[in-house]
């Protein structure tokens, strides 16, 4: 069995420039509140702008759904669309792209609009774990995974996104014991296991997540 460290080092040798580019785009969101995402050659879509609010909406769209479809929806709706489109307009776009939870996600995004100022303030927090607790309390549809996803995508480096790809990597490499449900305790345990890998490889949690996602999917998304 190949040690997980060696698996990740191989991925670093293959896609480091793309990972570095994505991390730079995330940091631009944290510092400027605006970025340009470019997903070529992994997704055939033109580069597009995103802001803090549209990124929060993206993380609602991709909860238990495909990141690639979320990217295509985010590109089409655009910064202003997430803030201004009617529930029906959002519903029709999500349905066109084959989203599994069309009305639920459209409603959650409309209901997120009064929290735009709060989401802007979050990016100035120093501690990602404290910011995560605030997000879970206030944002409908955000658990630890979704809140961590949003924070990573706006430049935080100290939280892990424990999704099915990450859990499978941890289980397969005996870094945590297999569990049937992702409780808060299991999430924290998994995050700690990833932190040890981060220290060994001199990577942030955000970078490590992108490398593991690449290992599992052969794509660098977000």
TrEMBL record:
<dbReference type="InterPro" id="IPR011257">
    <property type="entry name" value="DNA_glycosylase"/>
</dbReference>
<feature type="active site">
    <location>
        <position position="145"/>
    </location>
</feature>
<dbReference type="GO" id="GO:0006284">
    <property type="term" value="P:base-excision repair"/>
</dbReference>
<feature type="site" description="Important for guanine/8-oxoguanine distinction">
    <location>
        <position position="222"/>
    </location>
</feature>
<keyword id="KW-0326">Glycosidase</keyword>
<dbReference type="GO" id="GO:0140078">
    <property type="term" value="F:class I DNA-(apurinic or apyrimidinic site) endonuclease activity"/>
</dbReference>
<comment type="similarity">
    <text>Belongs to the type-2 OGG1 family.</text>
</comment>
<keyword id="KW-0234">DNA repair</keyword>
<dbReference type="Pfam" id="PF22175">
    <property type="entry name" value="Ogg-HhH"/>
</dbReference>
<keyword id="KW-0511">Multifunctional enzyme</keyword>
<comment type="function">
    <text>Catalyzes the excision of an oxidatively damaged form of guanine (7,8-dihydro-8-oxoguanine = 8-oxoG) from DNA. Also cleaves the DNA backbone at apurinic/apyrimidinic sites (AP sites).</text>
</comment>
<protein>
    <recommendedName>
        <fullName>8-oxoguanine DNA glycosylase/AP lyase</fullName>
        <ecNumber>3.2.2.-</ecNumber>
        <ecNumber>4.2.99.18</ecNumber>
    </recommendedName>
</protein>
<feature type="domain" description="HhH-GPD">
    <location>
        <begin position="61"/>
        <end position="217"/>
    </location>
</feature>
<dbReference type="InterPro" id="IPR012092">
    <property type="entry name" value="DNA_glyclase/AP_lyase_Ogg"/>
</dbReference>
<keyword id="KW-0456">Lyase</keyword>
<dbReference type="InterPro" id="IPR023170">
    <property type="entry name" value="HhH_base_excis_C"/>
</dbReference>
<keyword id="KW-0378">Hydrolase</keyword>
<dbReference type="GO" id="GO:0016799">
    <property type="term" value="F:hydrolase activity, hydrolyzing N-glycosyl compounds"/>
</dbReference>
<dbReference type="InterPro" id="IPR003265">
    <property type="entry name" value="HhH-GPD_domain"/>
</dbReference>
<feature type="active site">
    <location>
        <position position="163"/>
    </location>
</feature>
<keyword id="KW-0227">DNA damage</keyword>
